What we know:
With 194 residues, chain A is mostly helical. Chain A has helices at residues 9-18, 24-47, 53-71, 77-107, 111-136, 141-160, 169-193. Chain A contains seven helices and no strands. The two termini of chain A are 39 Å apart. Chain B has a two-stranded antiparallel sheet. At the A-B interface, helix 2 and helix 3 of A face helix 2 and helix 3 of B.
Amino acid sequence: xxxxxxxxxxxxxxxxxxxxxxxxxxxxxxxxxxxxxxxxxxxxxxxxxxxxxxxxxxxxxxxxxxxxxxxxxxxxxxxxxxxxxxxxxxxxxxxxxxxxxxxxxxxxxxxxxxxxxxxxxxxxxxxxxxxxxxxxxxxxxxxxxxxxxxxxxxxxxxxxxxxxxxxxxxxxxxxxxxxxxxxxxxxxxxxxxx
Amino acid sequence: xxxxxxxxxxxxxxxxxxxxxxxxxxxxxxxxxxxxxxxxxxxxxxxxxxxxxxxxxxxxxxxxxxxxxxxxxxxxxxxxxxxxxxxxxxxxxxxxxxxxxxx
Lengths: 194, 103
């Protein structure tokens, strides 16, 4: 797409970029509506020989309003807190899991820590994917949060149990406790939004 | 039903007068796009407005992309009548009262 002010390409490109912030379920409709309005408006201006700096500035003002339009799709403060917490927890758990995987799993060749840390790495990745899903409001977000939460609880309880006791109390608290909290808060924020 | 805001009333009024799409509504109401589109979505969610995509064939014939058109529902017409009455009553009350001194 060539960027020139003699075509509506620049405005369309802006809308296309902005549409990434619109939740997945509304994105194509939102983008299609805005693009149609811009192109139709442009064609009317062209038809009436009215394409000048003033009309282009007016179009820019209208298109800039799309940022406010996008903002109305965004999250409640509780959802934003959950997104940030998910990423933090994923980093903390992921760091410990990778450490266990490399040291006891690969270097020492212990099978049980290798298996458990592999699953814990998957759980960390799932926490990050859940955060992205919450941010972009994927349709499968509820299922994803549930799977992440349940898997994290199972892994951390198993890891803290004797005889292996791979995980300490803090890991259990973060991994299982936060997973429970995440599922509860997500459910609460979803029901409030509905 | 929650009472309509001034911008919501203006948008419903524009739709009632045959203005059917976002940019058209902006032109006639003087409201910015950042107000019109979120309000249209809100009104649609509360059942006062419904939207439909223009048939592709119609738009293609005119060599332009299909637009999204909005129209009032029965509930929207009732809400608009109620809001207009409310603003008229308010105006009636204000015109009857003596003007407040600003000094």
